[in-house]
Amino acid sequence: MLVYLMRHARAEVGQGVDDLSRPLSPEGRAYVRRLLPRLRALGVRPEQIVSSPYQRALQTARLVADGLGYSQEILKDEALSPMGSTAGVQALLIAFAECQQVLFVGHAPSMPAWIGELCGSSAFRIAFPAGAICCIELPEPRRWSGTLRWLITHVEAET
Questions:
Q1: Which of 29, 63, 105, 154 lies deepest, with the highest CB count within 10 Å?
Q2: Euclidean distance between CA atoms 136 and 50, whole angstroms
Q3: For residue range 49-59, what is the model confidence (pLDDT) as tens digits?
C-alpha cells in the first residue's frame, strides 16, 4: 500500500473565524494547482481520500481530488484533526488495507510525527510545511512500519 500524507495548504489568517472554519488562502489554492502536475507524474491515484474535518484540510483534499480525477466522496475523520490520534490513523490504515493507494489530509504537528514513526523512529524529525506531501510504502498496512518513497515540501510558482 502507498500512503500519501498531506498537510493542508496555506490557510487564511484566523481574523474572527474559528480554527475549524478557516479556509484556504488564495496562495494555498494556487499552490495545490501547481502541485497537481507533479502528483499526476508520480502516479498518485488514491482509491480513498480521507481528510480532517477542518475546512482548510477539506478544501485541500477537494482540490487534489478534482485535479486527480477522484470522483468518490472525501471521507472525514477526527483522527486527522490538528491533535490527531495515532490509533485513529492506524484504524484507517486497517480499514483500507485492501487499497493500493490512500491519501490522508491533515495538520501539523501530527502529520510529521506520524511520518517519523512510520519510517522507524519517533525521534525522526522532518520539515513538513503547509502543502507538503509524502509517499510512504507500507508493505503490511496492519503494521505501523514503512519506507519513505518521496517527499515534496515546495513547488515553485511559475515566473
A1: 105
A2: 16
A3: 999 999 999 99
